[in-house]
Structure formats: C-alpha cells, structure tokens
C-alpha cells in the first residue's frame, strides 16, 4: 500500500467525520441534544492525519470538539450518537453526553468540557504506559486557548522531565470562543511555547492531511522509542461557529470563505483528482456512502431505549 492508497482512505474517513458532525447539528436543531454543541467542521485533517499515525492500543484525549478524533480512533458512530442522545447503549450508558465520550476499548479516553483538562489526563496515561513498560503512545488534542492554562504547562513540564510517550496536538483554529489568538498570545507560533520545556516541536499546515500525518508519525515514533514528548501545532480553522447558535460577529464572512476554499476536504479531493487517483464522481460517491453509513448509525441510536430509571444511580460517583 503506497501513500496514495492511504490518502484515499483518509478522504473517506474525513467524509465520515464531516457527515457525523452534520448529523449531530441536525440532532441539535431538532432539540434532541442537551447543552451546547461544538463541531469540528474544517478541522478533519488534524483528526485523520494525527490519529492515522497511531495503533489501536494507543490512547487519545480530546476536547468538547473532539468527536471526529474519537471516530477516527475507532469509536462506533452509533454508540457515540446514542451517548449524545442519552440512550442506554451510549458509550457511557447515555449519562455523559457529547462532552464526555469515553471508549477505553478503542483507546478514546475522554472528550472534555474543561479547556486543557485532557492534557494532564493524557500525561497520566502516558506515565501509566511507561510504568507498564508497554510501547503505548498517548496523544492529546487541545485548542489554541489551552496554551495559557496552568494544566497545559504542568503537563508539559512533567512530560519533558519524565520523557513521557506523549504527543501533544494543538489545533490552532485562530479563535478561543470569540477571541482571536493574536489578542491572547504574543508569539506567532504557539509551538514556541515548547522551547521552554525543551520539547521538540513543529508547526504544520493543519488543513493538509498528508503533512499532519508525516509530522504525527515522527512524533509517535519518538514517543514509542522512549525519546519523550513532541508538540505539534496544526494551523487550521473551524468553518462553523464556536458552538451551534454562535452569531459569529467576531469574524467576517470573507475570512470564513477564504478558509473554506482552503478546507481540508476540498484540498485532498483536488490533489487526488489532480494525481489521477480519483475522479470527482468517485469522490461524490465516497461522500454519499459515508453519509449513508452515518445516517444509519444515527437512526440506530435514535431507536435505542433511554436508560431505565433503576439505572439512575449506577456508574455515578
Ligand atoms: C477552564 C475553562 N475555562 C473556560 C472555559 C470556557 N470555554 C469553553 S470553550 C473555550 C474556548 C477554548 O478555545 P480553544 O482552546 O482555542 O478551543 P476551540 O474551541 O477553538 O476548539 C472556553 C474559554 C472552559 N470550558 N474551561
Ligand atoms: Mg481555538
């Protein structure tokens, strides 16, 4: 299997994630989801490129925007929808919701509502992997807003000093809620933060799945061979609001359209068509197949029962 074959699979996975997010938005608009919903539309290349470098026994932690990463890691779409819809067959028996997706058998160790909170959890998992003398690698996804949190710095320091098998993936989508990153951090590159901890770092185009995958593979190899953590800053952009219902008054439509033209799906489609690997029609068919699969998972989850009242206090700590 050459690199080109891998790119076709990556496109299919990115279509699945896009379809999952669009279906989640539909559920939200129908009033079927509680709380708020944060989509990763536009950030699919980071999920697929980075998770693609992992093995199934490796583990990931994510944010409230990370269900695409969980899907890429192998969590069942139907079980994730069931969790979001509060069904008993959900990943946490319907008690966690969209911001608490756990599927240890798939190595998905939690989406998380608290900014930066998944990073020390990942450091702990990486310490466990090290103490177990396993060759497991842990990858943690977080946003640009996380780099000013104490939890980020504490985890970076421990990862460095203990040479933890940890890959830190910063998805810099230029905004933290409604605040542009340039109003929060003086450096142009957040990867510069890693220098303070002597952690190797790279800045990559987060909308190019091939470069994300290459950088992630190097980082994973470093972690797996006992050389410690790596920080990857993936520059990307969310093509939708911070959450559903965001009026998006803090950015122009022009800016969004510029990034949409440079979005991860259109770029990968264009390069595969240009290289003669896929026709435009084959891309459309793959996208339709992904939508069909995800819609079937959604229908299955909707048909599942809500937890029995007798279960109200089980799994509650
Ligand atoms: C500790 C903490 N502070 C504040 C919030 C409120 N909050 C929710 S999302 C968010 C923005 C985080 O931005 P970023 O890390 O860039 O991630 P993105 O939403 O862009 O994916 C904030 C401040 C929170 N959830 N947790
Ligand atoms: Mg952000």
Can you characterise this structure?
Helix content is 43%, strand content 11%. With 317 residues, the protein is an alpha/beta fold. The protein has a single domain, classed as Rossmann fold (3-Layer(aba) Sandwich), CATH 3.40.50. Helix 4 packs across helix 10 (280-303). A five-stranded parallel beta sheet has the order 1-4-5-9-8, with helices on both faces. A two-stranded antiparallel ribbon has the order 2-3. Strands 6-7 form a two-stranded antiparallel sheet. A hairpin with a 2-residue loop joins strand 6 (175-176) and strand 7. The chain has helices spanning 3-29, 44-51, 67-73, 77-84, 118-131, 150-161, 209-224, 253-261, 264-274, 280-303, and strands at residues 59-61, 102-103, 108-109, 138-143, 166-172, 175-176, 179-180, 201-205, 230-235. The chain is globular and about 50 Å long. The chain binds thiamine diphosphate and magnesium ion. Thiamine diphosphate (TPP) binds at residues 63, 65, 113-115, 143-146, 173, 175-177, 242. Magnesium ion binds next to strand 6.
Helices and strands, with pairings:
Elements: H1 3-29, H2 44-51, E1 59-61, H3 67-73, H4 77-84, E2 102-103, E3 108-109, H5 118-131, E4 138-143, H6 150-161, E5 166-172, E6 175-176, E7 179-180, E8 201-205, H7 209-224, E9 230-235, H8 253-261, H9 264-274, H10 280-303
């Amino acid at each position: 299997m050459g690199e080109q074959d891998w790119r076709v699979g990556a496109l299919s996975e990115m279509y699945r994630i896009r379809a999952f997010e669009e279906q989640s938005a539909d559920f939200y608009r129908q009033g079927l989801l509680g709380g708020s919903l944060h989509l990763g539309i536009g950030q699919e290349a980071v999920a697929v490129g980075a998770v693609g470098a992992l093995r199934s026994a490796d583990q990931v932690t994510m944010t409230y925007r990370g269900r695409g990463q969980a899907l890429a890691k192998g969590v069942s779409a139907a079980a994730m929808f069931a969790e979001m819809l509060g069904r008993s067959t959900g990943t946490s028996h319907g008690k966690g919701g969209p911001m608490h997706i756990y599927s240890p058998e798939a190595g998905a160790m939690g989406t998380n509502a608290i900014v930066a909170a998944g990073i020390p959890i990942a450091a702990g998992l990486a310490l466990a992997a090290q103490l177990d003398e396993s060759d497991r690698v842990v990858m943690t996804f977080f946003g640009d807003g996380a780099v000013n949190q104490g939890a980020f710095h504490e985890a970076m320091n421990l990862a460095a000093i203990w040479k933890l098998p940890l890959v830190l993936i910063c998805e810099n989508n230029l905004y933290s809620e409604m605040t542009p990153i340039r109003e929060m951090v003086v450096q142009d590159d957040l990867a510069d933060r890693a220098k303070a901890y002597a952690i190797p770092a790279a800045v990559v185009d987060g909308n190019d799945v091939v470069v994300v995958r290459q950088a992630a593979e190097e980082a994973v190899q470093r972690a797996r061979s006992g050389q410690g953590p790596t920080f990857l800053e993936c520059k990307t952009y969310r093509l939708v609001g911070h959450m559903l219902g965001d009026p998006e008054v803090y950015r122009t439509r022009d800016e969004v359209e510029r990034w949409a033209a440079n979005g991860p799906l259109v770029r990968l489609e264009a390069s595969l068509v240009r290289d003669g690997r896929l026709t435009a029609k084959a891309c459309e068919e793959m996208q339709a197949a992904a939508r069909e699969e995800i819609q079937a998972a959604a229908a299955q989850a909707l048909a599942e029962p809500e937890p029995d009242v007798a279960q109200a206090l089980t799994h509650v700590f």
